[in-house]
Amino acid sequence: MDDVRRELAALRRRMRLQAVLGIGFLVAAIFAMGGADVVATTGVHLFVESDAYKVKSQDASSAMQERLVVTGGVNTARVKILNGNIVLASQSADPGITDAGTLWYDSTAGILKFRDASGWISTKTPTLSATSRVLGRKSSGGGDAEECTLSDVLDFVGSAAQGDLLYRSSSGWTRLAAGTSGQFLKTQGSGANPTWGTPSSSHVLNVQAGLVGTVGSGEDTLYTYDLPANTLDANNKGVRITAKGEFANTTSNTTLKLYFGTASTTVTLPKTVSAASWEAEWIVIRTAVNTQIAYWRVHYTSAASDAVKRYATATLPTQDDGAAITVKVTGEGTSNNDITADFLFVEKLAQ
Question: Phi/psi zone of residue 287: left (φ > 0), alpha (ψ -120 to 50 degrees), beta?
């Protein structure tokens, strides 16, 4: 019986030794596939002595594929798994890796960085310096995100020149560059972009002075002026004509006539016991193409009575505003200088 017990004890020792040797050979074979050295130390610890190793396994086609590749500096753990969490080694400088998809922890900046096709990207949410800030890129070219104010963002639309305006076009927000001095912002209605407009200023078109009188009987032209074509090239554009003169002491009435193209108005001046003066004004406004409204007004006084007489009327001329229009003052008497004129003034009205 003692012999049997001794044989069984010896058998158990041989089996334990074989199991330990089998496990050791298996571990050594696994790490040997990656070129690693396996060393058994006191206790139950096994570790890779080389600072680089690979773990491979077969894929569906029985080919060996790399599943884990570890490289790093001597005595530096690059990746740890602690309680199910992946811990990256702290590095104070760019590791110099250009492979997209790389992660590293920048211990200097305290930021986890990710490598894309163009460079490193910080994964840390930046801390903004103040309220009313957004992240963007205001510096020229690509690069890291920067703090931007609302003014910075609006400058993205275009030039940051003083006097520029921002408006919404049909395709997006755009910039209206500053106009010139004196211009005004002009809306063109719904569905159109605003623009700068130049106000139409009243300006003198013609001035004539000097005494001109009638000659004998019949109608005589005292002053005449050809209004340039397209002076009234838009509705509500207009002109004002002013003239003045005198009529002599006569025994019969005299006639003063004012023209705008073929349209005219006639004023009969009365007989007087002494010379008197007259002043005429007519304003013409375009209302449609080749259609105008005219307001005619004449004042005249008698030196004897100093009474002021007024004559006023309105007509609807239909002159061709694309052609020159003749402005004219005529007089008709029976003798020389029964009616005289000494001034004609033509001005374009502000629109």
Answer: alpha
What domains, with CATH codes, occur in the chain?
Answer: 2-121 (no CATH), 166-196 (no CATH), 203-348 (2.60.120)
Alpha-carbon gap, residue 310 to 294, rounded angstroms: 17
What is the Cα–Cα distance from 49 to 32, expressed in whole angstroms?
12
Q: Furthest-apart CA pair in the chain: how many Å?
A: 180
177 vs 162: CA distance, rounded Å: 9
Task: Name 334's bridge partners.
Answer: none
- Burial environment of residue 8 by CB neighbours within 10 A (0 to 12, 13 to 18, 19 or more): exposed
**What 3-state DSSP class applies to 21?**
helix
Helix-strand-coil percent breakdown of the chain, rounded to 5? 10, 45, 45
Q: Which of 153, 147, 145 is nearest to 129 (CA)?
A: 147
Q: Describe the strand order of the beta sheet including 291-302 as a list of residue ranges.
A: 203-213, 339-348, 238-247, 276-288, 291-302, 308-315
Res. 201: pLDDT tops 70: no
| Separation of alpha carbons 290 and 234, rounded Å | 10
Write down the pLDDT at residue 105: 79
What distances in angstroms separate CA 115 from CA 79, 122, 162, 194, one per listed residue?
17, 9, 41, 47
- Report the percent of the chain where pLDDT is more than 90: 33
Q: What residues contact residue 292 under an 8 Å CB cut-off, 6+ apart?
A: 232, 260, 284, 285, 286, 316, 317, 318, 319, 321
Give whole-number Cα distances, 123 to 29, 105, 110, 114, 115, in Å. 40, 10, 11, 7, 10
pLDDT of 207 higher than 90: yes
Query: 44-89: per-residue pLDDT in tens?
Result: 333 444 555 666 777 788 887 766 666 655 445 566 666 767 777 7
Identify the helix (H) or strand (E) that includes residue 203. Answer: strand 203-213
pLDDT surpasses 60 at 323: yes
